[in-house]
Amino acid sequence: MTNPPALTYASAGVDTEAGDRAVELMKGAVKRTHSDAVLGGVGGFAGMYDASFLLRYERPLLATSTDGVGTKVAIAQALDIHDTIGFDLVGMVVDDIVVVGAEPLFMTDYIATGKLVPERIAAIVSGIAQACEVAGTALVGGETAEHPGLLAADEYDVAGAATGVVEAANVLGPERVEDGDVLVALASSGLHSNGYSLVRAVIANAGWDLTKPVPEFGRTLGEELLEPTRVYASDCLELIRTDGLDVHAMTHVTGGGLAANLARVLPAGMVATVDRSAWEVPAVFRVIKELGNVPVADWESTLNLGVGMVAIVSASSADAYVSAARQLGTPAWVIGEVAAATSARGAEALADSTLVAGTKGVEGGAVHLVGQYR
């Protein structure tokens, strides 16, 4: 009986040396996110963060979030551009944390790939690190796994998790929202990282190539679709902490669209009315709608339509909030207001059968969309 051929981990498709080379290539970018609070270096079994500063809090609450990028990675892979997808990952994670008023302290990432190409992994992680710098968040660790036979050689997926902290007395949310509060929109940078299954189906059905120049975009289709997610965390925290800006709640507009995510941060008995005519929907959303003949209801419940974050603020500080956000470089504008369901305005909104409520299992308030998009 002849002996079977010798098998090694490398011949099975896993290259541990490639992993080591990837770590060397990404080291510098990761270290730039570290402050004195980060202990140890890159490559340890666990990332460590000095939490002794929490002793200064009266009642520190930890906030945590985890997410991925979704099928937007397919666009990055098709274009062989991997250094921007990290902004999508970081934005999806840390901007969920800042919604409750928490400061995102540190983050970890996970990358699964069919074949570990050091330069590609380093590009992905470098993008994550750059986005962490923008957010003021330390990238303290991560994992790269090679899955031959499960993923194709050029395929990968990314995910991440972050932890933040907020003083209990300063938590933002439905409990703070009041009758007469104003809704302030913060502009998205584009599609962000949601709805790409719909977007990819639309362009596939239309037979459009990612290299196709699109006049409405002023660049190629692929360049528009790969536009990185705007990372709001640092700016939102600055706005929350600014004297005179009375911020009651915030929502991150991700999967489900504007109305569904806004309803999640409203208390029961409150109705938010959003005026669709308050902003001009960016070209990428209009093109996708027209190209795929996407119904309005599906369009606005899938994509952010140009609004990536909404702050719910007191009426007296709305104008100042808009001005302060613009000074930080984030376009902002008023899109509506909140009313008690028992008020005349609230009762009028509740009479509309298109009201959005009860999303994500949250028994909170409701959102009423009025007017026509520009």
Automatic annotation (TrEMBL):
PurM-like C-terminal domain segment(s): 178-342
GO biological process per UniProt: 'de novo' IMP biosynthetic process; adenine biosynthetic process
Residue ranges of every copy of the PurM-like N-terminal domain listed in the record: 59-166
Statement: the UniProt record of this protein carries the keyword Secreted: no
Record EC number: 6.3.3.1
EC top class named in words: ligase
A Pfam family the protein falls into: AIRS_C
GO MF term (any one): phosphoribosylamine-glycine ligase activity
GO-annotated cellular components: cytosol
InterPro entries registered for this protein in UniProt: PurM-like_C_dom (IPR010918), PurM-like_C_sf (IPR036676), PurM-like_N (IPR016188), PurM-like_N_sf (IPR036921), PurM_cligase (IPR004733)
Main location: cytoplasm
Catalytic activity of the protein: 2-formamido-N(1)-(5-O-phospho-beta-D-ribosyl)acetamidine + ATP = 5-amino-1-(5-phospho-beta-D-ribosyl)imidazole + ADP + phosphate + H(+)
Keywords: ATP-binding, Cytoplasm, Ligase, Nucleotide-binding, Purine biosynthesis
Subcellular location: Cytoplasm
Pathway: Purine metabolism; IMP biosynthesis via de novo pathway; 5-amino-1-(5-phospho-D-ribosyl)imidazole from N(2)-formyl-N(1)-(5-phospho-D-ribosyl)glycinamide: step 2/2
Family (UniProt): Belongs to the AIR synthase family.
PANTHER family per the UniProt record, alphabetical: TRIFUNCTIONAL PURINE BIOSYNTHETIC PROTEIN ADENOSINE-3, TRIFUNCTIONAL PURINE BIOSYNTHETIC PROTEIN ADENOSINE-3-RELATED
Protein name from the UniProt record: Phosphoribosylformylglycinamidine cyclo-ligase
Species classification: Bacteria, Bacillati, Actinomycetota, Actinomycetes, Micrococcales
Gene: purM
